[in-house]
User: What shape does this take?
Amino acid sequence: MVRIAAIQQALRDEDLDGWLFFDHHRRDPLAYRVLQFEPAQPVTRRWYYLVPASGEPRGMVHKIESETLAALPGQKLSYAGWNEQREALAALLKGCKTIAMQYSPLCAVPYVSNVDGGTLELVRATGVDVQSSANLIQLFEATCSAEQYETHKEAGRRVDAVLRAAFHAAIAAPCSEYDIQQFIRHAFDSEGMVTDHGPIVAVNGNASNPHYEPSADHHSPIRPGDLLLIDLWAKLERPGAVYYDITWTGYYGANPPEVMQKIFGIVSGARDAAVKRVQDAAAQGRELAGWEVDDAARDHIRAAGYADRFFHRTGHSIGEEVHGNGANMDNLETHDERKIIPGTFFSVEPGIYLPEFGIRSEVNVFRGPDRAEVTGTVQTEILRLKM
Assistant: This one.
């Protein structure tokens, strides 16, 4: 069912006159997901659909695909030629001064930046001001129901168990990064979970590549004296399930070298500083933007002298996709000004990557109405992997 009333309330809250949805050849999946509809026919021509802050929505379709928006309420204007398109678009937007579209200034939020520059020029030529729909998208794409919250928690219990088993398997018999990766994938299948790719299983210098993944043709053995990093993510195999995504590190031996323990202490301290900033803001009822959480972690690592060894954002939104469409904890790759709103999940995963080894510590956080919680077990020291 199309959630027009909810969209209109959100527009009024944002002080916007409307939200203009646009697509061509299904390039913007967000439009279909937010509007909760499937087009009545293949989309080979441009369509537009305006949800005003009040009043009846209205759309605009090409004459040869007149039924594209049939499932959506409101009058539908039609066009064929490019002149007609511009005239119809001006009529569609009549009365609007400021609208939202799937656009992000300077592409600061790439997840939302789906409308092409030419279409923005076309829309602005009608005299309206186009604002980013990033906050609106977060509201409709990133907030979770009580049932979805439970799918995340259950995924966490299963993933935590798989992680423990994977670390045990890594020292139970001679094996490689790829062997453990495949062990985890098979365990996910057995536990009724799915993932889009991965996991990351990396030893020593390989762990200094944050997106390293072993393959059948390219992997390293796991041996005594190795640092082992495992980053794994999965969700229950059911509609609407939310991902759980964590990273832990272990040392194949009784006593990790002092330098590894030092780096882990800095990384876990940065993680805890970021989580505390979120928890304090939630408890105080204070708004907090994603960039502020990144700063909390990054400042901790900078103070320890390793700023240049932490070269990715602190965390990402988590939803039905492992990288969701809510606020990211980011003031490095982007300056994410989106607020961390109640009902959303995200990761906190600072890391320090040296030539010899890399350490990352990742937890998931849920922002509730008046508090924020870490949803799984928190690693407090490097695991000692002993035979």
